[in-house]
Amino acid sequence: MMNYNNDSILYRWIRGILANKKAVLGTSLVGFFIFISIFGQLFTKDPTAFLSTPLSPPSADYWFGTNGQGQDVFAQTIAGSRQTLLVGFTTGFLVVIIGSLIGGVSGYYGGRTDDILSLLINVFLVMPGLPLMVILASWLPPGPLTLIGVLSLTGWAWNARVIRSQMMAFKNRDFVSAAIISGERNIRIIVVEIMPRMLSLIASSFIGATIYSIGAQVALEFLGLGDVSTITWGNNLYWASNDLALLTGSWWTFVPTGLSVAIISFSLTLINFGIDEVTNPRLISERIWKEKISNSDTINGITPVRKINE
Amino acid sequence: MNQSLIYLIRRLGFYLVAGWAAITLNFFIPRLMPGDPASIIFARFRGKLKPEAMNALRETFGLTDEPLIGQYWTYLKSIVQGDFGISIAYFPEPVTSVIASGLSWTIFLAGTSLIISFAIGTFLGTLIAWNRGGKLDSILPPSLAFIGAFPYFWLAMVFLYLFGFKLGWFPLGHSYSDSVTPGANIQFVLSAIYHAILPALTMILVSIGGWMLSMRNTMISTLGADYITFARAKGLRSRLIMLRYAARNAILPNFTGFGMALGFVLSGALLTEIIFSYPGQGYLLLQAVTSQDFPLMQGVFMTITFTVLAANWLVDIAILFLDPRTRS
After folding, report:
1. Based on the number of CB atoms within 10 Å of its own CB, is A4 exposed (0-12), middle (13-18) or buried (19 or more)?
2. What is the ipTM score, two decimals?
3. pTM more than 0.95
4. Does residue B317 belong to the interface with chain A, where contact is any CB pair within 8 Å?
């Protein structure tokens, strides 16, 4: 019995992810950024204060230089992470909830319901996101709530599509038929029986949605659609471009923020690679083969005819 | 052939529904916002706009005393007739003519970079799937994923700074130099290409990884198929198997993905245009945001949507020719 528990899927995944270099690197980087976003401001200068000559290059006092308002870019980069990450993760969470609900219901019920919902999903998929976000955001009062709302409203469709197709694959499995026959309610079957079995898919969807919402959020704020008086990564870039960072050659006003966005997105992508390698059956079997046969004399895609277990 | 016609008409029907949904969203967004749109507009623009501009604005949104359904009908009719209202930023020019001035630039820049990036990405994906576990396969996916993690516009800023500002290899903005006259002359074409290289390069770099990875995935499952094993058993040259047998089939799902990704890629293209002051839709969108030109904003949204829908339909037609399974 104990043995069975140790080998349960969840346990195997966690063990696999801990052994996966990509996932560990990604998780530690993301953890580092989250830590910085919560506690980092304790160790920096005041990000809003006028401290030195505007647009002075990086120096010992100001590691990342100062921006057009004479503020410390280092402090601003750290202070900006808080709202950006908060909005990013919250939106990622909301996107997964909306996407799983719509995609799950659509895939589970099929028929008319599926026709209508998948039409809705496809319409939102094919519509270009950015201009729609811009319109929504410019009618609403600027701020984090607007960003979360706008990003979730325009970003759920991809997720719904993925969950829907997975749900359709699960619907015909025996355990679902058994649950239906034993008289469980549909909503319970979806949420309690099926969703837990999609955990790895939902986890990687959450990460994908977070990457999307960090990028889109920064883009919207860069266009000036955020609350420009707050300090966020997007607003840092907005002010950098407003203060003519390019024409004055002050690269330090936009490089740190952009690198931060890139590093956090990349770390999240690494976690997703890791989850995929650990939970994707095709990659698992491939890995097992690789471990058993030395790499050098395999021919691509062909099962080698030779003894594996000496 | 009859089957394919039905397929194309069904797809067309979907695009019409999607287009109608975009128009309807456009109509209802201002009306669903907190507060009454007429007074929001009035409050934001009081003192800034001439009375005739205010009236044009009201008319654009159909904010009349008609009942809602009547307003909606009027709005639908004017959109179908190509009347997107009057721009505020470029008052009194109609939105349609403002947008038309930038549409061909966007299609030229985004279209070219999209096709180049799709072609290179698909080819690289084929290559690394074929030599799975090889050197390229371990280097390319993570490094392109890293580049792909950069925000489009940020990479554009860095490139513009490095290659335009510091090194002076490329122009700092606009789509052609002031010294040439637009038209069918060789100087103009060369100048337009020269101005497009840097923005196109950033778009290609950021988007190439996605195409490569999805091609790699479909290619790997195709390579497991029996007919590939058979082709090898026959002793066919491996280049032939890779390109004519495997890649040719693996590319089909990617074409569908191509259509789906269009909206996303165009969104990135809009931001790149802004950085390079490239006079396309993105630049207009920024103008519209900074001057709160709602009619222009909505016009850009609809133009981009209609472009994406039309392109998707072309992809459907292409798939019909490429994949015999869709014809039966």
Report:
1. exposed
2. 0.84
3. no
4. no
